[in-house]
Amino acid sequence: MTIIVALDPPLFVDPYEWIYTRYIQLRDVVEGFKVGLPAIIRLGVEKISTIFRDYNKFLIADLKLADIGDIMSLSIEILATYGFNAVIAHGFVGIEQALDIASKHCKDLGIKLILVVSMSHDGSREFIDKHLDELIDIAKKIESWGVVAPATRPEIIKRIRMRYSSTELKILSPGVGVQGAEPGIALCNGADYEIIGRAITLSSNIRESALRIKEEQSYRVRQCLGSL
Amino acid sequence: MTIIVALDPPLFVDPYEWIYTRYIQLRDVVEGFKVGLPAIIRLGVEKISTIFRDYNKFLIADLKLADIGDIMSLSIEILATYGFNAVIAHGFVGIEQALDIASKHCKDLGIKLILVVSMSHDGSREFIDKHLDELIDIAKKIESWGVVAPATRPEIIKRIRMRYSSTELKILSPGVGVQGAEPGIALCNGADYEIIGRAITLSSNIRESALRIKEEQSYRVRQCLGSL
């Protein structure tokens, strides 16, 4: 079970209905859900929480927090109040008076903190990639539960995994499917979860697509482990 | 008229009521409002829009966007739909496939784009400050309406103003009041607006505090222009 489904409802749909139908079809076949900022600002966390009321796997708020500590902490407390159990933040805001405070709040509230250390778009090379090793170290230093690194850039996933084991730092990899990476590739390179959005959520048969992708992941992981 | 009020309702209040009462008391004495991420995720933009329905000055969504272009654009479209006319994003995500797309969407929708180029917390020195000049240039290159730079660090405000005039790039400065900068100091150094939160919103007489701070701004600006 290694799929986390990215929920990003398009503009011209009822976002509540859109998320709800996908949740119902996928909840027993995937490891968790990541709700994007656009859906969160559109619906508000209270309304979103009514969809996931009895869910006990990963429910990640992808806010990509990048603010001073007090503001990130306030957001984290609101997320915890409404049933989220993980949040994504940026490493580049730094530790002092920012991630140190956010990290403490996450621990106190039982929220998993996940740091972005690399992104899939070309602009990631302009600043973020220049600080990759420092960002990975920050993730470890503040005792993040995991990091986000794109499936489309396996060399980065390997680099993180060479520094820290899976028990020390989880790797979550978006970019599988529509963005170009084949299912299982990130796992072969050391990722713990593949975050998959449109390849599942916009397919004509959502549940079938998720099950098929799980099989592709298993096949590729067996292959890279050399058992095929 | 140079005050923009930062609205960040504390956790244990009704955030709708809290924002509404402050809006009513302040709307005719300040230049605009900046609504923070915590309040936006808590209430959702649709509900927030009912407070500001007939407002035509600045209404800034302080999301500190830092994502790939498609996700930032989706957020920007949602903001535009619900009456926001400005949004804050991070320069750190870079231009290609990120800020280039966000900037185009802002222009198409009549939304003012404001980039963070420096922050007030100590962690800003770890990464962001090292790229100050590049971030300022990115703001100009993608034709941002303005940038955010802290009132507590006047040398940075001066540096931005030396590179670009006020007609080229507006400077919005938070950090006035509780965070330590005195009203008017950022204006004296070249800022166009001072963003003021708790010194107004948590005071016992909200409207009085705003009016008093306006007077302090005027006094200090006259002083630094040498007319006192």
Automatic annotation (TrEMBL), chains A, B:
Span of domain Orotidine 5'-phosphate decarboxylase: 2-213
Pfam families reported in the protein's UniProt record: OMPdecase
Domain of life of the source: Archaea
Binding site for substrate: K34, S120, G197, R198
Any one GO BP annotation for this protein: 'de novo' pyrimidine nucleobase biosynthetic process
GO-annotated cellular components: cytosol
Assigned EC number: 4.1.1.23
Keyword Lyase set for record: yes
Gene3D superfamilies to which the protein is assigned, alphabetical: Aldolase class I
Active site, renumbered: D62, K64, D67
Listed name of the protein: Orotidine 5'-phosphate decarboxylase
The species this protein was found in: Ignisphaera aggregans (strain DSM 17230 / JCM 13409 / AQ1.S1)
